[in-house]
Amino acid sequence: MDFTYQYTEEQEEFRKEVRSWLQENIPDDKRAPVDRNELSDEMYAWWREMHQTLAEKGWLYPTYPKEYGGGGLSGEHETILQEEFRIARVVNGFTNSLVFPTLLVWADDSQKELFLKPLLSAEKVAFQNFSEPNAGSDLASLQARAIRDGDDWLITGQKIWISGQRKPDLLFGPMVTDTDAPRHRNLGYFMVPFPSEGLDQERMNLLSGDDQSVFFFDNVRVPGDHLIGGEQQGWQVTQTTLEIEHGGRGTAMPQDEALEHLLGYVENTESAGEALGADPLIQQTAVEAYIDSHVFSLLSLRNYGMYMARQEMSYQGSQTSMFGKEYRIENADRSRDIMGMYAMCGIDEPRAPYAGAPEVYQRSSLVGAHPAGTIEIQKVIIARRIGISRTRERAAATPSTAGVSGV
Ligand SMILES: Cc1cc2nc3c(=O)[nH]c(=O)nc-3n(C[C@H](O)[C@H](O)[C@H](O)COP(=O)(O)OP(=O)(O)OC[C@H]3O[C@@H](n4cnc5c(N)ncnc54)[C@H](O)[C@@H]3O)c2cc1C
What pTM value is reported for the model? Predict the structure, then answer.
């Protein structure tokens, strides 16, 4: 079966327009660095502006509604944009895009104006504010507390591992609104402006760099209209974010640059006067990497197709997420088997293949096993969704299944 998607003439014209615009407007010295930690302050500022230009064209967040700053375009347009962005090494928007589907499903009209518009138009940046020191896999055990004060809320607590470059304008996530209510009925979901009095950010230094932060809340005042959904509905709102985060939207254009590097290395490297690929063990390892990567691509594309067609989903998101996390770690092992110590040469080492990208992959594949639910947690979700667990659960509402406009 041929899985290659055949684009229409109109879509191919759109691709040409995107490609030539990117060629003209993205200078070489602004293209995404091999290691995202190398994004300088100057580049960050340049991309903040460029994201606004791309958003105005409808290209940054193409499938979200035009009235709120999205592109109003189709999934096929999104796929083309992702393909072309990758070729041009466009730096992705700095907002954690999980906030968009969540606001589409749960925010009222005035909240969409207030939050969705500035985020989709890239004027503002939002980070996902969920995990706490004692609440990661078991998110419902979180403790950050929101107490009513007139029309406002006062928030106190700590959030950890919060991804995002530099500083956010908004943090989005659940807080305990009622300590007497049972688990899952004791939370509200808040949009918290940053900076705010009493709110501090400290960056974390992880194996993958310093993209994560801890946020400390000390009686941070948040206006009443920053609560998304009801004051005890936060768990349901959170589930919409998690449904997408666990893979429920799939990916229009699954990318695997690490695989391309691995295959390129096998093809173009010689060892003791022989092509590396002549060694049957190397061949076998490279083919295993290729197969796993393609299985992941097909699972991601299936999810994307189901999501865009507004089909009911169940285990598919977590299945894809679990497989993706596992195979990336295996492919990092395989690239060490094939490249040897060259896979460990960083971006500053002149002999590093592919400008050090394989070394970045060694670190990011390990770290990547944790965000968006660990491998074990994806297995728990799959078991619940296919009916072999003590508890059963259905997929949460997403813009796809909730029937709202824009996906
Ligand atoms: C790079 C990175 C980026 C992140 N970005 C964000 C972000 O932007 N926003 C945010 O809110 N959070 C973020 N996180 C946090 C992430 O969601 C948590 O790390 C994750 O949910 C795991 O929680 P934990 O670290 O507290 O580990 P724990 O929950 O303490 O888990 C420890 C280990 O126990 C296992 N385990 C736990 N429960 C079970 C179970 N029931 N069955 C089997 N095994 C289990 C886990 O799989 C894991 O191996 C990020 C984390 C990382 C590393």
Answer: 0.96
Q: Give residue 373 CA to ligand 1 midpoint distance, Å.
A: 6
Which amino acid residue places its CA nearest to atom 7 of ligand 1? 162
- The alpha-helical segments, DSSP class H, found in 142-188 are none
Cα dist. 213→47, 161, 168, 392 in Å?
Answer: 21, 6, 11, 34
**How many angstroms separate the CA atoms of 217 and 199, rounded?**
5
Question: Which pLDDT score, from 0 to 100, does residue 407 have?
Answer: 86
Q: Is the CB of 163 under 6 A from ligand 1?
A: yes
Residue closest by Cα to atom 48 of ligand 1: 374
Are 239 and 396 spatial neighbours (Cβ–Cβ below 8 Å)?
yes
322 close to 362: Cβ distance less than 8 angstroms: no
Stretch 381-389: mean pLDDT, rounded? Answer: 96
Atom of ligand 1 nearest to the CA of 375: 47
CA distance 359 to 26: 26
**What is the whole-number distance in angstroms between the Cα of residue 374 and the centre of ligand 1?**
6
Band of pLDDT at residue 306, cut at 50, 70 and 90 = very high
What's the rounded mean pLDDT across residues 298-319? 95
Q: What is the pLDDT of residue 3?
A: 66
Residue 301: C-alpha distances to residues 245, 296, 306, 395 (Å): 15, 9, 9, 18
Partners of residue 173 on adjacent β-strands: 190
Cα 149 to ligand 1 centre (Å): 32
Cβ neighbours of residue 182 under 8 Å, at least 6 residues apart? none
Phi, psi of 213 (to 5 degrees): -135, 160
pLDDT in tens, 246-279: 999 998 888 899 999 999 999 999 988 999 999 9
Q: Are 297 and 257 in contact (CB under 8 A)?
A: no
Q: Per-residue pLDDT tens for 177-234?
A: 999 999 999 999 999 999 999 999 999 999 998 899 999 999 999 999 999 999 999 9
User: Ligand 1 pocket, 136 CB below 6 A?
Assistant: yes
- Structural domains of the chain, ranges and CATH numbers in brackets: 9-93 (1.10.540.10), 126-240 (2.40.110.10), 249-402 (1.20.140.10)
Q: Omega before 33 cis (within 30°)?
A: no
* 162 Cβ closer than 6 Å to some ligand 1 atom: yes
Taking the centre of ligand 1 as the mean of its atom positions, its distance from the CA of residue 162, in whole angstroms, is 12
